Amino acid sequence: MRVVLGITGGIAAYKATSIIRLLIEAGHEVKVVPTQNALRFIGATTLEALSHNSVDPDLYTDVESVKHVELGQSADLIIVAPATASFLARYAAGIADDLLGNVLLTSRAPVLVAPAMHTEMWTNAATVANVETLRSRGINVLNPDSGRLTGKDSGAGRLPEPEAIVEAALALTSVRDLSGKRILVTAGGTREAIDPVRFIGNHSSGKQGVAIAREAVSRGARVTVLAANIEGLQISGATVIATDTAIEMERQVNHLLQGTDVFISAAAVSDFRVAEVSATKLKRSQLGDQINLRLIANPDILAGVVSRVREEGLDVRTVGFAAETAGTQWALAELAKAKLGSKGCDVIVANDVSGSAVFGSEHNDALIITKDGEQKRIAGTKTAVASVVLDILAEL
Ligand code: PMT
Fold first, then answer.
1. How confident is the model at residue 185 (pLDDT cuts 50, 70, 90)?
2. Does any ligand 1 atom lie closer than 6 A to the CB of residue 267?
3. In this prediction, what percent of the chain has a pLDDT beyond 90?
4. Fewest CB atoms within 10 A around its CB: which of 116, 187, 332, 386?
5. Mean pLDDT, rounded, for 235-240
6. pLDDT level of residue 154 (50, 70, 90 thresholds)
7. Which pLDDT score, from 0 to 100, does residue 148 have?
């Protein structure tokens, strides 16, 4: 998606760098349009480097490309953050005396405005009236956060956090094709204790599962995430439940399955656990040079869900992931088909985890195969992969 990010002249302008980063990471193209005053707070070079696009707020350069019209017409979404009181007044009055003002008037894209100013300015009757005017025209104006302001004062007027701005902005464009659907996603990596100190784990960061959850929320789904060892995870609009071992995850999945429409098993689940977990720390001095750990198989959570769906006649679509070290696309496809068959799920998302390409990365290169034989390859951000997986589910 092509996003125009307008920045106006306030101290919070530096936070626009995080907004750009979040948009780029989510796979969007970002064109930054600062006002001249914004450039007193943040340099064009920084904005160009982060957005990978040139930045020129002058209305009268590159005139032959009619850039104010081109930018406005080609934008899929416009965000103005931070928005000053002065900007709100000009926008409410329809004044187009700079590039940003022109872009806003030539665009039909949804607009999200994130104001930031001192409390007195935010509550001033003029600002209140301007915000009302903009909202009455369908412009989405966020309320600022409360907290520490630029001076010694505190109160309403802080720029909302970049994550909240981006989430609210993207929600304006998202298709609500999963509206009301209840989706259960597992994410992260389970850990199997050896003793109170050590565990057997894996490299999953949870990013792919979390991307699916966030994307599903923005498409209207009611999402629950079973987060295996993802510290401090919060997803606005979703319920996040922390989990740890495969056994614990299985218990939670079984508890939550009734009433779920879609189960997405993105977590890396340990296939084995330690048979006898030591209650006290194993001491090297007592163990010698070798240690034998007896491992026993963990339940296959996904296969268990598929069995329940069949046996209990539940109306649940099931998505499995296949983490393979395939080497080639052909080999990945063969392994994916085999896993689709052995797990019995409706869709399998195969990714080649050789090297460090997937675990912990913002990107993935996935082959998605449905039980009807439909195949789709998607290489991009984990959000982009999430989006395609959900497109397929929406069809199902
Ligand atoms: O978390 P990231 O850093 O973003 O990395 C993403 C990922 C690589 C972890 C993710 O894209 C992924 O591939 N997840 C599944 C990892 C995995 O366990 O693959 P598997 O091939 O071993 O398992 C196949 C499927 O069975 C998976 O859906 C898995 O959740 C499920 N499973 C596996 C074992 C088990 N005992 N119970 C299960 O339900």
1. very high
2. yes
3. 86
4. 332
5. 89
6. confident
7. 84
Mutate to test the pocket of ligand 1, among 214, 229, 245, 321 (most ligand atoms within 8 A of CB): 321
Q: Are residues 186 and 167 in the same domain?
A: no
- d(C-alpha 278, C-alpha 307), whole Å: 33
Q: Is the pTM of this model over 0.70?
A: yes
3-state secondary structure of 261: coil
Residue 221: inside a domain, yes or no?
yes
- Check pocket membership of 206 for ligand 1, CB cut-off 6 A: yes
Number of structural domains in the chain: 2
C-beta of 366 in contact with ligand 1 (< 6 A):
no
Is 386 part of a structural domain of the chain?
A: yes
Annotation says 292 is catalytic: no
Q: How confident is the model at residue 381 (pLDDT cuts 50, 70, 90)?
A: confident
**Last residue in a domain, options 137, 171, 205:** 171
Clarify whether residues 165 and 197 are in a common domain: no
For ligand 1, whether the C-beta of 205 sits within 6 Å is: yes
CA of 276 to the centre of ligand 1 (A): 25
pLDDT score of 157: 93
How far does the centroid of ligand 1 lie from the alpha carbon of residue 206, in Å?
10
With a 6 A CB cut-off, is 332 part of the ligand 1 pocket? no
Which of 202, 229, 298, 364 is labelled catalytic?
202
140 and 205 in a common domain: no
Q: Across the strands, what pairs with 378?
A: 366
Residues of the domain holding 100: 2-171
pLDDT tens readout for residues 91-124: 999 999 999 999 999 999 999 999 999 999 999 9
| Residues 100 and 234 occupy one common structural domain | no
* Dist. CA 106–CA 327, nearest whole Å: 49
Q: In this structure, what is the dihedral angle of CA atoms 115, 111, 137, 97, given to the nearest 10 degrees?
A: 80
364 CA distance to ligand 1 middle (Å): 14
* pLDDT attached to residue 62: 82
Ligand 1 centroid–CA 130 distance in Å is: 51
Residues 167 and 246 in one domain: no
